[in-house]
Automatic annotation (TrEMBL), chain A:
<dbReference type="GO" id="GO:0016485">
    <property type="term" value="P:protein processing"/>
</dbReference>
<keyword id="KW-0472">Membrane</keyword>
<feature type="transmembrane region" description="Helical">
    <location>
        <begin position="65"/>
        <end position="85"/>
    </location>
</feature>
<feature type="transmembrane region" description="Helical">
    <location>
        <begin position="6"/>
        <end position="25"/>
    </location>
</feature>
<dbReference type="GO" id="GO:0016020">
    <property type="term" value="C:membrane"/>
</dbReference>
<feature type="transmembrane region" description="Helical">
    <location>
        <begin position="215"/>
        <end position="236"/>
    </location>
</feature>
<feature type="transmembrane region" description="Helical">
    <location>
        <begin position="115"/>
        <end position="137"/>
    </location>
</feature>
<keyword id="KW-0914">Notch signaling pathway</keyword>
<comment type="similarity">
    <text>Belongs to the APH-1 family.</text>
</comment>
From TrEMBL, chain B:
<comment type="function">
    <text>Probable subunit of the gamma-secretase complex, an endoprotease complex that catalyzes the intramembrane cleavage of integral membrane proteins such as Notch receptors.</text>
</comment>
<keyword id="KW-0472">Membrane</keyword>
<dbReference type="GO" id="GO:0016485">
    <property type="term" value="P:protein processing"/>
</dbReference>
<protein>
    <recommendedName>
        <fullName>Presenilin</fullName>
        <ecNumber>3.4.23.-</ecNumber>
    </recommendedName>
</protein>
<keyword id="KW-0256">Endoplasmic reticulum</keyword>
<keyword id="KW-1133">Transmembrane helix</keyword>
<feature type="transmembrane region" description="Helical">
    <location>
        <begin position="336"/>
        <end position="355"/>
    </location>
</feature>
<feature type="transmembrane region" description="Helical">
    <location>
        <begin position="111"/>
        <end position="128"/>
    </location>
</feature>
<feature type="transmembrane region" description="Helical">
    <location>
        <begin position="45"/>
        <end position="69"/>
    </location>
</feature>
């Protein structure tokens, strides 16, 4: 529905990510690189998944169980990639620390590490928003709008943007939780992230039923807020215990 | 690149199904029509690309020769002339398209005066850079955009094969000892002159400066000429209405202020130190030709769908990152095209074939992960 609406939907999905980017990440070029590489990684994972699922598409959109399988495989793959990302990051961190020692500058602070994790998560979240929401948003710049059967009260684009926002939040902060969990060997945190991801994915299945999105989306937002709170608690704990090093 | 996408989107949304056939040297071997079979299209595209690369090679060798005989003045004059032509004619054509599309009320004479002034200022900005840097950069961007847009008007298969062929040519021309671009670089280094080229100079972050690069226009300008025949509409039989492309090089050259080779390795390490680090004054220069071809890639992707655009954008940036890393590793002039174009083309086709179906299926049913 016109350019204004199109831009509105795009900003709805990406606004907080953009705000985070501009305030926190654009100051440090290394974080920008991290965002770009994690976006690329997410895209590659998506391509691999779609390559794997291509022979089975188009799925019968009435039945929901093929989508369940789809989601489970996709989430498993992406969580595996998150672990890989973590390993690469560990190696990078060692290299950076060694370099810092060589030029006798201080090592990476915990805040720096969390910022890198945040940047990684932001890349994932932004990639999700871009590929799942923005790329189907192109018709929204035209004069009309589109409604789906399952969710007939609000335009499809609006629903899509809202869901993308929730997921972007979840991705961004679960990366921080995950990195923290891996570095401290905290089993709860390590399991929290894949579980949340899986649950969030499954919740979107509810959208299959008519009127389902009025249940599904609030649950999704509850999950997003839960992730935020958990992340906030964890970060706060970490900051207060390292108060001297801030 | 972003501007090219917008331009393509605006101008193609209202166009008819059959694009105007342009008689350029790029299609001289074969004019593609949609009714031909796949194999014919492929052969035709290959032929076109081959012709194009041959012409480009010949012209580059000619330019190396001229540079060798120190006819730099002639080169500069010639480039000024051709950039004027580009801005005037190509810019005028595109402005006409836009005016037609948006029904802007403007009359002939005002339009001509404005266009002429635009082109003239452009030439001055690019070559006698006594202007504010932002003006120079703006004009470089405009020139790149115009040329890129015109390239996207070529038929589809030709464009893709052309991009791949140019990437391969770039690889050969810079890395092979007999390649013209390598000769050029060596000549310039041996004479200790700056290569007069139309390049962007990307300066790394210095202390608290924002962003990962600042662009500066180069002082002397030099362009490699590309023969681009006239389109069907224009009646000027200039035949070789030139479109400019610069040497697609990345070179690791020192800016004139500092002596010695402060390499770009320092700059990447600086960014690692997360802003606490020292600023070095090594500059990374990227030729305008590279930007043009990236824009062509992205513009062509935009003609399909926006998802391909995002994928290609990311792919090109990734390729650029890889190339910069290689630059830091090898410390010599490297071709900037091959890696990015390879990634870009690969991602375009993967996205178009695989990803789109998947994502559309998922999002239409509001199933996401």
């Amino acid at each position: 529905m016109t350019v204004a609406a199109g831009i509105g939907y795009a900003l709805l999905a990406l606004g907080p990510s953009l705000a985070l980017f501009v305030t926190v990440i654009s100051k440090k070029p290394f974080l920008i690189l991290t965002v770009l590489s994690s976006t690329l990684l997410w895209l590659v994972s998506l391509i691999v998944l779609s390559g794997f699922w291509r022979p089975f598409l188009p799925l019968n959109s009435a039945a929901s169980w093929p989508f369940a399988v789809l989601i489970i495989t996709s989430v498993a793959f992406q969580e595996g990639l998150r672990l890989l990302f973590w390993k690469v990051y560990k190696r990078l961190e060692d290299m950076l620390d060694a370099f810092a020692d060589r030029v006798s500058k201080p090592r990476l602070y915990p805040t720096d590490k969390m910022l890198i994790a945040l940047a990684g998560g932001l890349g994932h979240g932004a990639a999700h928003a871009v590929f799942f929401c923005l790329s189907v948003l192109t018709p929204a710049f035209g004069p009309a709008t589109f409604f789906t059967d399952q969710c007939s009260q609000i335009p499809f684009f609006l629903v899509s943007s809202i869901i993308a926002l929730a997921f972007a939040t979840i991705h961004t902060f679960s990366m921080v939780i995950a990195f923290n969990g891996y570095s401290e060997g905290n089993k709860v945190d390590q399991l929290f992230v894949p579980v949340v991801h899986l649950v969030a994915g499954m919740v979107t299945l509810i959208n299959f039923t008519t009127g389902g999105c009025s249940i599904g989306i609030p649950i999704l937002y509850i999950i997003a807020i839960l992730t935020l709170l958990h992340c906030g608690k964890m970060v706060w704990g970490k900051l207060t215990e390292n108060q001297i090093r801030l | 690149m972003f501007l090219v996408v917008i331009l393509v989107a605006v101008l193609n949304s209202g166009s008819s199904s059959s694009p105007p056939t342009i008689n350029t040297i790029a299609t001289i071997a074969y004019s593609e029509t949609t009714s031909d079979s796949t194999w014919d299209k492929l052969k035709g595209a290959l032929l076109n690309a081959l012709v194009f690369v041959v012409v480009v090679t010949a012209v580059t060798f000619l330019l190396v020769l001229l540079f060798y005989f120190r006819c730099t003045h002639f080169l500069k004059l010639y480039m000024g002339f051709s950039s004027f032509i580009v801005l005037l004619f190509l810019g005028g054509e595109i402005a006409l398209f836009l005016i037609r599309k948006f029904s802007v009320p403007i009359d002939c004479f005002t339009f001509l005066v404005l266009l002429f002034n635009f082109a003239a200022v452009g030439v001055f900005a690019v070559f006698l850079s006594k202007m504010a840097i932002i003006v120079t950069q703006g004009y470089l961007v405009a020139i790149g955009m115009l040329v890129a847009y015109w390239f996207t008007l070529l038929p589809e298969w030709t464009t893709w094969v052309l991009l791949v062929a140019l990437a391969l040519y770039d690889l050969a021309a810079v890395l092979l000892p007999v390649g013209p671009l390598r000769l050029l670089v060596e000549l310039a280094i041996s004479r200790d002159e700056d290569i007069p080229a139309l390049v962007y100079e990307a300066r790394p972050v210095i202390n608290h400066d924002q962003g990962s690069g600042e662009y500066e226009g180069q002082r002397r300008a030099w362009r490699r000429r590309r023969e681009l025949g006239n389109d069907s509409e224009s009646d000027h039989n200039i035949g070789t209405s030139d479109a400019e492309v610069t040497a697609p090089l990345i070179q690791n050259r020192v800016s004139s202020v500092v002596d010695g080779q402060e390499s770009s390795v320092a700059s990447t390490d600086n960014s690692f130190l997360e802003g606490i680090g020292l600023g070095s004054s090594g500059a990374i220069k990227l030729g305008l030709g590279d930007f043009i071809f990236y824009s062509v890639l992205v513009g062509r992707a935009a003609m399909y769908d926006f998802m391909t655009v995002y994928a290609c954008y990311l792919a090109i940036i990734a390729g650029l990152g890889v190339t910069l890393m290689l630059l830091a590793l090898y410390q010599q002039a490297l071709p900037a095209l091959p890696v990015s174009i390879a990634f870009g083309v690969l991602f375009y086709f993967l996205t178009r074939l695989l990803l789109e179906e998947f994502v559309v299926q998922c999002s239409l049913n509001l199933v996401m992960f």
